[in-house]
Design brief:
The complex is a heterodimer of chains A (about 260) and B (about 350). Chain A has about 260 residues and is mainly α. Helices cover about 75% and strands about 0% of the residues of chain A. Chain A has helices spanning about 5-15, 20-45, 60-90, 95-100, 105-110, 110-135, 145-175, 175-195, 210-215, 235-255. In chain A, helix 3 (about 60-90) runs parallel beside helix 7 (about 145-175), helix 6 (about 110-135) runs antiparallel to helix 7 and helix 7 packs parallel to helix 10 (about 235-255). In chain A, about 45% of the residues are buried. The mean pLDDT of chain A is about 95. Chain B has two domains: about 5-235, 3-Layer(aba) Sandwich (Rossmann fold), CATH 3.40.50; about 245-305, Alpha-Beta Plaits. Chain B has 13 helices and 14 strands. Chain B is elongated. Mean pLDDT of chain B is about 85; it is low at about 1-15 and about 325-338. Classes of the chains: A mainly alpha (about 260), B alpha/beta (about 350). The interface of A and B includes residues 11, 93, 95 and 98 of A.
Chain lengths: ~260, ~350
Amino acid sequence: MTAIALRMTTADLLKLRRKRWLVLLSLFLTLGVVAIIYLVTVIQHASNPGEHGPAGGAHNFSDGVRALALFFGPLVAILIGVEAGTGDASAGVFRDLVVTGRSRLALFATRVPAALLLCWTVVITGFVLLLVGSIVFASGLPTPSASLVLNGLGFMLLATGVLCVISVAFASFTTSRPGAIVTLIAWQVVASPLLANISSLGSARKGILSQAIVHFSPVSIEGHRGATVSMSEGTALIVLVVWVAVFLAIGAWRTRTMDA
Amino acid sequence: MSTPANDPAIQEPSAALAIETTGLTKRFGERTALDGIDLQVPRGSAFGFLGPNGAGKTTIIRTLLGLTRATSGTMSVLGHPVPAERSVALQRVGAIVEEPRFHMHLTGRENLRLIAAVRGPDADARIGPALGRVGLSERAGEKVKSYSMGMRQRLGVARCLLADPLLLILDEPTNGLDPGGIQEFREMIRAMVEQEGRTVFISSHLLDEVERTCDAAAIVDRGKIITQGPIAELASGGVARHELILGVDDVERALGTLGASELVLEAHRSDDGIRMALAGEPDSAARVNALLVNAGVGVARLEPVRHSLEQRFLEITARLDEAPSDASGSSTHEEVRS
């Protein structure tokens, strides 16, 4: 990364991290949710140990990783990505950036690492709290292995990273913050699971982003990773790459050609 | 902050003009916003771009800066053809398009840091001086959402200064400024032009403001340049005439004397006495006075006529309004040029 790209990325990160509502909401969806889950399960275990197991341990850690990587993390990724993609346009300063003479593609490109930096910082914070809680509240249960911790972290970063990049690009394409947030959440949370369960769609379902992401989950549930559609690792990887490449292309195209 | 007057880049022989457009046309669907604009803005001057709302002022600025694409025509900024060499051309251009906009959740200084990051390392060092120049040093740590409109305008100028601009393009820059702020702004523009050798291109519908601030101007209406040139020439209808109003005790004798003198181009009776045009420079007014006194005419008043750009502007636009329905047609164009 050149010095100017680094400076532009730092500037984009400044815009994001100074958005107080964005940072607080993102922290709530990660740190806050993990803390609430621990609080409830610790109280339940303390009040009725026979009915409710300990809050910590490897199994609960695995559940937490899945929740962070597949639901709360993507929500954070979408919020941050959309803000990164639409922030300049909605504030009306995109034209002021364009009149510096800097290429529009460069202006688009530096949004991506800035959004990733904030997104990953927030989800890693939640992950760390999840890990600490799984050890502190294990109460004799086996704690997560180093392999599970690293794979879980990698999976979470992959899942949130892909969503974040796609969100930046899609938001840059639409330039509408509410529209992009609603569309992305609706697709990821509502439409994708529904489509994945329509068996008549056959192998076309391999193209669903969330199915490809789940394929990389290190956490097995009842012998599989939670994916409805089975595919090879290579296919899953290709699906992820195509999604990211296509969205980056349309986001870059829109940023390059739109009236500022 | 270095002054561009001493900068070798400003001495580029290739471009005596800061802005030049030829046949610049911009259409939005069926509507023609710019209709064959030929504009020449000399370097080292304050140039006003005058026109009523909707005349195409902002559109030409947006086109020059690459914010929107021209339908046809050619243009150059600081000697560089745009859009072909847009990046190079805009490196030393500062611009405020429409009202200055900022990230409201950031401070004034942070907003400048964002632009400085995009401009390059040199721009960072200019943040402090730029804030000082516009009188915002003490408020730079406050969020922009707490700024008044006038402060935002000044912050917008500071943002322009980060480029150490050879050319400033300011769209309605005095909007939201109080009278004191307008005066300060005017002085700042003049200092930029006269002391630092910068070119300032100001679009405005405020005729008086342009007349006081600018050296030259173009009048635009309905997407066409109606006329352009030095302010004095524009105000006097294309010729730099030096006119006087005379108050005398004997109008007939005075007219006879003036009519026989080679100092006088034209003289006629008017409501306030005699109105006359000098054949020479303004200092020949004293000789006219002596001529009349020697002829036995008592002179109670001798006052130079100040041509108003506003008057001229209203004349031109009124003539366009009276023209046939196709007001943007070439005949109207030529008529008002003549």
